[in-house]
C-alpha cells in the first residue's frame, strides 16, 4: 500500500506544474520563463542534495565520459519536454494539458524498438531489442478516445490553429521525455542514482535554458516577482519532491511487474489533481459531461495499458530466454 500512496503523492506534486503554469499564463507571465526558471531553480536544490550525499564527484566523472551525449539527450529529455508543455498552456487549461500529456505512455511504448534490454538466460545475460507491446497499444485506443473527447469541448471555443497549438506541443513532449530519459539511462548504465541523473541532465541542459532566458529578455522582458516565486514552487514540488517520491515508489516494487504497473497507473490521476487545483485556485468552470467522460477514459486506459504492457514485456523476455 505504501508504494501506491507514494505514487499518488507524486501525481499530486506533478500536477502542481500544470496548475501553476496555467496560472502564470493567465496572470500575464510568459511560457518562456515558466520553462527556463523551473530548471534554473531546480539546479541549486539538486546540487545540495547530491553534495550532501557525497555523490557529486562521481556524477562529474560520468558526465565527462560523454559530454556531447549528455548535452544532446538532456536537451531532448528536458528541453523538448518541458518547453512545449509550457507553450501549450497558452492555448489550453492546465487540466487539459495534463490529460493530453498521458499520451506519453503510448509514446513510450512506440519507442521500445529503439532500445536494447538485457535479459538473464541459462547461458548468462543476453541483449534483446525491445518490442512494441501490442496488447498495451490496444488499450491505448481508450486513452486516445479520452483525449479526443476532452479536446472536443475546446474545439467549439478555439480556432483550428489554437486547438492544434494546444495539442501538438504536448505530443512532441510526450515522445521527447521518454526518449531523452531512456537514452540517458542507457548512457549512465546504473552507475548513478536518480538525484545524480536528474542533476546531471539539469546541468547538461542549462545552455538551452540560458539561451531561452536571453530570448525571453529580448522579447518579453524579465519575469515578474509573482512568476519567479511560482517557478520556485514548481521547481521544488515537481522537479524535486514529485520525482523523488515517484522513483522511491517504483524502486520499492521494481521486481514485481503487477505492483509496478499499479504505481505507474497512479500518475493518471494527475489530470484530476490538476482539474481540482484549477477549480479551487483559478476559478475555472467545471468541465462538461463530455470532458468528464474523456477524463474517465484516460484514467481507465492508463491503468489497463500499464498492466497489459508489463504483461507483454514479461512474456517477451520469457520467450527470448527460452529460445536461447
How many β-strands, per DSSP?
A: 2
**Strand percent estimate:** under 5%
Helix content, binned percent: over 70%
Reported for the largest beta sheet, the result is: 2 strands, antiparallel
Mean pLDDT over the residues: 85
Number of domains: 1
In angstroms, what is the radius of gyration?
Answer: 20 Å
SS-derived structural category: mainly alpha
Order of helices and strands: HHHHHHEEHHHHHHHH
Count of DSSP-assigned helices: 14
User: Which runs of at least 5 residues are low in confidence (pLDDT < 50)?
Assistant: 313-324
Strand order of the largest sheet: 1-2
Distance between the termini: 37 Å
Shape: globular
Organism: Bacillus yapensis
Protein name: Multidrug resistance efflux transporter family protein
Keywords: Membrane, Transmembrane, Transmembrane helix
Transmembrane segments: 31-50, 70-90, 96-116, 136-152, 158-177, 198-217, 229-248, 269-286
Amino acid at each position: 500500500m505504501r508504494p501506491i500512496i507514494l505514487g499518488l503523492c507524486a501525481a499530486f506534486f506533478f500536477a502542481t506544474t500544470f496548475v501553476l503554469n496555467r496560472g502564470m499564463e493567465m496572470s500575464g507571465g510568459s511560457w518562456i520563463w515558466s520553462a527556463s526558471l523551473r530548471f534554473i531553480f531546480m539546479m541549486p536544490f539538486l546540487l545540495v542534495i547530491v553534495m550532501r550525499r557525497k555523490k557529486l564527484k562521481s556524477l562529474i566523472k560520468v558526465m565527462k565520459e560523454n559530454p556531447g551525449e549528455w548535452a544532446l539527450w538532456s536537451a531532448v529529455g528536458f528541453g523538448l519536454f518541458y518547453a512545449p508543455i509550457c507553450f501549450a498552456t497558452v492555448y489550453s487549461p492546465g487540466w487539459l494539458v495534463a490529460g493530453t500529456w498521458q499520451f506519453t505512455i503510448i509514446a513510450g511504448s512506440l519507442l521500445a524498438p529503439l532500445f536494447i534490454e538485457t535479459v538473464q538466460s541459462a547461458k548468462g545475460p543476453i541483449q534483446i531489442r525491445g518490442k512494441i507491446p501490442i496488447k498495451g497499444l490496444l488499450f491505448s485506443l481508450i486513452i486516445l478516445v479520452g483525449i479526443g473527447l476532452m479536446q472536443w469541448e475546446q474545439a467549439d471555443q478555439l480556432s483550428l490553429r489554437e486547438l492544434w497549438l494546444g495539442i501538438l506541443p504536448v505530443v512532441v513532449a510526450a515522445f521527447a521525455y521518454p526518449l531523452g530519459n531512456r537514452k540517458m539511462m542507457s548512457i549512465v548504465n546504473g552507475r548513478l542514482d536518480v538525484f545524480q541523473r536528474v542533476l546531471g541532465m539539469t546541468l547538461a541542459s542549462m545552455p538551452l535554458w540560458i539561451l531561452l532566458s536571453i530570448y525571453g529578455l529580448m522579447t518579453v522582458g524579465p519575469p515578474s516577482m509573482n512568476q519567479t516565486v511560482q517557478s520556485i514552487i514548481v521547481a521544488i514540488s515537481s522537479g524535486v519532491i514529485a520525482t523523488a517520491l515517484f522513483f522511491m515508489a517504483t524502486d520499492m516494487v521494481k521486481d514485481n511487474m503487477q505492483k509496478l504497473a499499479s504505481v505507474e497507473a497512479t500518475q493518471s490521476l494527475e489530470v484530476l489533481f490538476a482539474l481540482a487545483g484549477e477549480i479551487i485556485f483559478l476559478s475555472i468552470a467545471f468541465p462538461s459531461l463530455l470532458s468528464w467522460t474523456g477524463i474517465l477514459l484516460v484514467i481507465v486506459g492508463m491503468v489497463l495499458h500499464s498492466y497489459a504492457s508489463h504483461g507483454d514485456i514479461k512474456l517477451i523476455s520469457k520467450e527470448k530466454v527460452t529460445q536461447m
